[in-house]
Predict the 3D structure of the following.
Amino acid sequence: MAKYNLNSVIASLSKDIIITTLVFIVIIFAIWSAVFFEFKLNKEELVHNQLDSIVNIYQTYLSEKLSIVASSEAFQDYLQIGDNTQNDQYYRFLDELVTLKDQSIVGTSIYYIPSPYIRGMEADETKLIFSYGKKTPYSVTLKVCYLNRRLDANLGLCQNTWTLYFSKAALLNILKANSRDLIVCKDNCHTINLLPQHSLGSFPVLRASTMKVHLNWKQETITPLVFLIVFFTILLVILLSLINGMRIRQVFNQVIANPLAHIVARLKKGQLPRTVNYIEELEFLSDRIKKAYKAMDKIEIAKIARQAAHDLRSPILAIESVLKKTNKPDEEQLYVIKHSVQQIHDIVNNLVQKNVKDAAINASNFRSVMLTPIISYAISEKHSELEEGDHHPIQLVTKIDESTYKTFVKIVPETFRRILSNVLNNSIDALKNKKSGLITLSIQCEWPDVVIEIHDNGAGIKKHHLSTVFDDGVTYKQGTGLGLFHAKENIEQWGGNITIDSQLNQGTTVTIRLQAQPPAVWFAESMTILSDSKIIVIDDSDTFHHEWKQRLLKLGVAEEAITHFYNPDEFLNWYKARPQDGRDRNVYLVDQEFTGNEKTGLKLIEHMNKDSQCFLVTTYGENFDIQNACEQLNVKLIPKQYVFYMPIYVVDQLADIVLLTKDQWLGKAWEYRVKRLGKTIQCYNSISNFTTDLRLYPLNTPIFIVREFDSIVLKAFALGYNDITVLTHDIKNYTPIEGVKVAQKEFDFDTLTQDKGKTE
């Protein structure tokens, strides 16, 4: 029997398999290259045509709506009659514009040209006959030409121009809603102008600005040629497997099967020498496998420990810093300590999760939250760390646009805190070798997104390393690399994205984009105060008593109208003993926690009348339990970080009528009609704003709520409001709760006058 060297046989077999595999890879690569280049030639033109088609469909739809409005009798009468009569026809004209209802149009202006229009000449737009909404950089001015009261751009007389002002974000949302495959991008994109430049249906374009956006199209179409290539690739793989299998079988028979048969034959004859201990070799191999498994377990444990150490560093340093400064921390320092302890609990809880990905987007944790308290805590934590740590002077600057203070995002708050902390830690690490450094954190709204940027002027990252900074364990400068890897993993699960831009020796910018959410029902976007109301501040912090006083005095509130309480028991005694003559018109600003007292702000509010206008003012605005309690008590919550920016309105009297609708055109039409009746109306565009002011109004105030907001009807009815009407186009298929009326959106205002008279 021939003798074989097992190592040489394995080497020969491996060589054969590698050569065969390489040949097939070359063949597959050649086939796919041919397909790719053919697809590449046609892709750009196909995508551009698809994008043009989407824009053209929108422009056609818009031109049809504009033509319907411009062809209406009310619209033409308003343009052609004199100034005196226009005032009488205004509401009919406004009703026609309401039917336009295009969210991308945020403003409009119509001008009259005194002299007959001559083509090729500039229009004299000195006589404005109608204007509404706001002006934006994106506008289109159309010629409005009529021949025998019909739109005719060729033979008609053009005596008016119609300027439309567009919202870029709203227009993009409409296009994305019409096509799920449309994406807004920055790299490898097509530049498209969304505004018409020459004509819009029946309307010639007199002039137009450009609205250039970068778009692309998801390519999911697989051609028959691609199916064919996939089929041949699978066929080649099967053929490769058969060839290698036959070769392995040949070697197996030659080296193993035949010798085994020879050994068996010799065993039967008792002729096999016992020079090799095969059992010992098997035991040695088993021991090696067990050691390999143990080594893998140690690597996984080390990875988890490395992540935990990275996450725990910041909250522990923040606590140490505060405790070294003082034995009696103030409210802001207590806030840092409590949140740091909570963050440590969250990190420990996440370590025991069997599946980290499931924990990151757990249904009970993934929710809409206010962004600014999370940012404020991260900044406070880093300030404490920088003061305590052995760092060169590092300046941490925040630039937060005021509009972002009422912005909500849908995230896992505990995870996002860790992400933000880790990104800031990386910036601090990048500045360790500099004499001084600057870290800038900015937040701004780019609806429908919120953009958070963290920029440092550190050492930067080499260009060829940028593509790998999001990989697990990859580091730049002296960081661990954990922050960016886990940040990308979680933020993308939440529907956002994170990018990094860096230049060597100049610095690094990390950009986080999250989807903005509407404000929660419990959140106070603004505050309305009647001029004759008293404001009661219950807080154990001198700082916030002073801040409330300064804000209210600047708004014209008299100092004697502001009452201050530092102790919850003293307030309760005063509240119970106060004169109770009718409805409580006071405004109560209540802190949640009082040092040295078990009572909380929510407990105080529970002891108060349900018609009292209470606001819970607290540093713990992101606490889920507190938010739920506020919603159940119909109480608005003001995070203390928002106190300095929240709009406050002081009014002498309330409106006669309340309307809740997001439709600005409907609101404008109602304002005009109610004004003609000699009454006033207050329009609200969100449930949050509406419920904030609701308790101010008398219980017999007529309240009109469009059907899309009817979820708030039951709450208003439960508070005792007895004149509620739901507005809908489909009365037959809507069943209201008992005691609530239903009406068409085209409301009969004479009926309103009669109803109001009966109520009075």
Summary: The mean pLDDT is 77. The chain is about 45% helix and 20% strand. The radius of gyration is 36 Å.
